[in-house]
Design goal:
This protein has 12 helices and 8 strands. The chain is an alpha/beta fold and 305 residues long. The chain has a single domain, classed as TIM Barrel (Alpha-Beta Barrel). An 8-stranded parallel beta sheet has the order 1-8-7-6-5-4-3-2. α7 links the parallel β6 and β7. α8 runs parallel beside α9. The longest helix has 18 residues.
Length: 305
Amino acid sequence: MDRHSITWTGAMPAITTPFTKAGAVDHDGLSRNIKRLVAAGATGVVAAGCTGEFWTLSREERRAIGVTTRGALGPDLTCILGCAAITPSGVLEALHDAKEAGADAGLVMPPFFAHLTKGEIIAHFEAVAAASPLPIVLYNIPGNAGNALTPDIVDVLADLDPVVAIKESSGDWMNFNQTIDRVRDRIRVFCGPSSTIGVPAMLAGCDGLIDCFPNVWDGCLDLWTLHQEGRMEEAWAYQARAQALTHLFTSGGRTLYPATKAAMDHLGLPGGGKPRAPLQPLKGPALTELIDGLDRILGRKTSAA
């Protein structure tokens, strides 16, 4: 398998996992959010990833999220399910569950917490690839995983048979650019932080955008369309607004995932609600400043009006 084994392209949001007041997965809210995003132009979604708070989910919950995601997307759009685990056996278990749920691929990051050598990271993926029942999308997010898929490592992993793509979410432009230069002839390259570098990534030839911000603002889906239509002045304007949102969500005592859900709630969008512990919902000045900043950036009436 390689990049030619799939046709995935375009904007595929990394979606939230909403929870009920009792703390269970809110499958109705999950489905409604997916359908909203598809109606806005998404070509698929990534579920149970970092935005989806995968670390809080049980095996049964993650598999059920895959079933709901597949059902909401229908048979034709791309369903990628997070399959993060520390051991190869744990990843393979998640990949088999993802296949059973109807996913098209599993999103696989390096093992987390334990700091690994280049050889150990490669050996992990080789063990997973040797028995994977699904195509694999590599996931480079060293700020969360603690282990990076450097361009040198990805160059090796791109030759493993099940590997068809990478979500490059390092946020480091040099790392992204070197990665796409090294492997785009073999696997598809999706830009993770499209809210900050989506336009440069598209100009560099990426195959699509995978980001959390479409949960809040359809403009992060429109980035892809604007670029495809050659409307670059508008695309750069949207990029600037997305960068402002990124700064807002990650400053003033806020972190990305609780801020994303709080913004969705303020905008009346499905899929928000409280994050699971240890994440905590925003409150006080952090929430007030988020709402005021969101209204300003998106051109809405301010909360004080």
